[in-house]
């Protein structure tokens, strides 16, 4: 397991590279050129500049999250050709700089969705929260109207200044079914996977968060069958998964450890975090500790260990603790604690394995 830590860049993150290098066992950053809109080519010079910055602190830049996919590609519009060409050029530039894994997602319109970014937990810390009644079964146009009239109903991603763009996108997705989206994903992968292969890069799709369709938009990547189907679209080690235990774990129907066991060789990147799921479908992000949430993190790490996992892992999100002011979900303290918990499990499994091997050798 090769531990990495997401960093949003100089001036764009409260956490510094100096702090990241002091977290035990962290060897690299997970990064992106966040100022570039989806669809643009990432210039080699910008990539190399970032690389110099990270390397000055002994950190590598082998994992990128995300190179976002332009909506025209997901929609299957004729203009996708240009954006796919750009995506290929970005892959080639990243490969040239030594990048090994590109995380991306294929979720229409929204990436992750939460209703509250700072919901208080019992211990006074705060964390990202999803209130199911606010989203599930909600007609998006109704929501647009509601927010336009009552800005206090705004949710993350639904800020009033984004509303007209959102309306336009919802219109564009009208009539786009899940099967259309699968076809568009296949078309995209058939073109980019050979380029990834040629550049020594493994593509790793991030599952839907939350793991179900929202606002009537099709979503493809939220259960075991979806992951299996993704892998069969293009059968290459370069077509892989970012297995996010937090995203998938928000559905009680998903057995994350079982997915690790089944798909281990196609998971170049692990997101390991916990989430507490309530009976009414709400969920909140918790500490990484297995007993604090609904995902058996011990078993998830064990599943990676059993399979000799040598891919990259990050603690994904954390709570906001000790009065830290940070990006929602991306503070230093709780993610660092999470890393130490993951290493604790990993190292004890390693020791046990060595002991077993020694006994067998006697
Ligand atoms: C993730 C996603 O860590 C996160 O915030 O859950 O936002 C993830 O980075 C993207 O879906 C990857 O494309
Ligand atoms: Mn994730």
Word description of this protein:
The chain is an alpha/beta fold and 362 residues long. The chain has one domain (2-361): Divalent-metal-dependent TIM barrel enzymes (TIM Barrel, Alpha-Beta Barrel). Helices cover 41% and strands 15% of the residues. It is built from 13 helices and twelve strands. Strands 1-2-3-4-7-8-9-12 form an eight-stranded parallel barrel, surrounded by four helices. α6 (140-149) runs antiparallel to α7 (163-173), α11 (256-263) packs parallel to α12 and α12 packs across α13 (333-361). Bound molecules: D-mannonic acid and manganese (II) ion.
Helices, strands, pairings?
Elements: E1 2-6, H1 17-21, E2 26-31, H2 44-55, E3 60-65, H3 71-75, H4 80-96, E4 101-104, E5 116-120, E6 126-130, H5 132-135, H6 140-149, H7 163-173, H8 178-198, E7 202-205, H9 224-233, E8 239-244, H10 245-249, H11 256-263, E9 269-271, E10 275-277, E11 283-285, H12 297-306, E12 312-314, H13 333-361
Parallel strand pairs: 1-2, 1-12, 2-3, 3-4, 4-7, 7-8, 8-9, 9-12
Antiparallel strand pairs: 5-6, 6-11, 10-11
Helix pairs in contact: 4-8, 6-7, 11-12, 12-13
Pfam family, one: UxuA
Catalytic activity: D-mannonate = 2-dehydro-3-deoxy-D-gluconate + H2O
Function: Catalyzes the dehydration of D-mannonate.
């Amino acid at each position: 397991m090769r531990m990495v830590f997401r960093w949003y860049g100089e001036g764009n993150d409260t956490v510094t590279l100096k702090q990241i290098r002091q977290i035990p066992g962290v060897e690299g950053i997970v990064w992106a050129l966040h100022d570039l809109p989806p669809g643009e080519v990432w210039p080699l010079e910008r990539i190399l500049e970032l690389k110099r910055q990270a390397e000055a602190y002994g950190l590598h830049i082998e994992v990128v999250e995300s190179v976002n996919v332009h909506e025209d590609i997901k929609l299957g519009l004729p203009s996708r050709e240009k954006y796919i060409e750009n995506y290929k050029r970005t892959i080639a530039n990243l490969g040239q700089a030594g990048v090994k894994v590109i995380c991306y997602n294929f979720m229409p319109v929204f990436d992750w969705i939460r209703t509250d970014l700072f919901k208080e937990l019992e211990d006074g810390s705060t964390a990202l929260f999803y209130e199911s009644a606010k989203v599930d079964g909600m007609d998006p146009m109704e929501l647009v109207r509601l927010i336009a009239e009552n800005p206090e109903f705004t949710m993350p991603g639904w800020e009033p200044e984004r509303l007209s763009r959102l309306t336009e996108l919802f219109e564009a997705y009208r009539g786009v079914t899940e099967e259309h989206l699968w076809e568009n994903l296949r078309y995209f992968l058939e073109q980019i996977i050979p380029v990834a292969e040629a550049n020594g890069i493994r593509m790793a799709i991030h599952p839907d968060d939350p793991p179900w369709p929202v606002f009537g938009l099709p979503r493809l990547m939220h259960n075991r069958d979806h992951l299996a189907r993704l892998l069969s679209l293009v059968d290459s080690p370069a077509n892989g998964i970012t297995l996010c235990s937090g995203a998938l774990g928000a559905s009680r129907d998903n057995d994350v450890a079982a997915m690790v066991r089944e798909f281990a060789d196609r998971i170049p990147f692990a997101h390991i975090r916990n989430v507490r799921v309530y009976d009414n479908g709400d969920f909140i992000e918790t500490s990484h500790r297995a007993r604090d949430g609904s995902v058996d993190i011990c078993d998830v790490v064990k599943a990676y260990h059993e399979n000799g996992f040598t891919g990259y892992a990050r603690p994904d999100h954390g709570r906001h603790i000790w009065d830290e002011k940070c990006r929602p979900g991306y503070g230093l303290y709780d993610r660092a604690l999470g890393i130490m918990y993951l290493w604790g499990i990993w190292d004890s499994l390693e020791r046990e394995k060595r002991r077993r091997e020694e006994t067998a050798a006697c």
